[in-house]
Design a protein that fits this description.
The protein has 154 residues and is α+β, with helices and mostly antiparallel strands. It is built from eight helices and eight strands; from the N terminus they run αααβααβαββββαββα. Helix 3 runs antiparallel to helix 6 and helix 5 packs across helix 6.
Amino acid sequence: MKKILFMILGICLISSIALADIDINYLANRYTRPEELGWWIVSHIWYDYDKLKNDDRHWQTAEETLKRRKGVCRDFSVLAYEILELQGYSPFIIVYNTIKGRHAICAFQYKNQWTYISTDGYNLLDWTQLKNYIITDTKGNKMNFLMIKMMIPE
């Protein structure tokens, strides 16, 4: 029993040390497919319910999110944004209001399709869904759907 407990503690410690050494450059080089990057983010970064509950509006940097190993949707999006930018994509963050509150995603074009990474990993982006939401920039200024479409590189 002690042997198993030490093995589990050892694996947790190794996992913790390994994650502490990871930076956005490593992730950009290691996870070159957005599907893999989205999976890595949701598998290694925890959702920070305390930050959500306390209405903390601080936008973490990618480095802060990696160091804390947790964040809310905007922090997941910033992390994805910085990595995707290093990989040569032209990502942008969309913040929009839903019934449950604001939500942020990191959108970008991949293989001629609009996709995004957020708290639920990597997904195809359905622009028709966004027409039903109020979209804001990171400062809370309302933007309409046509404004967003004009900002998007073709």
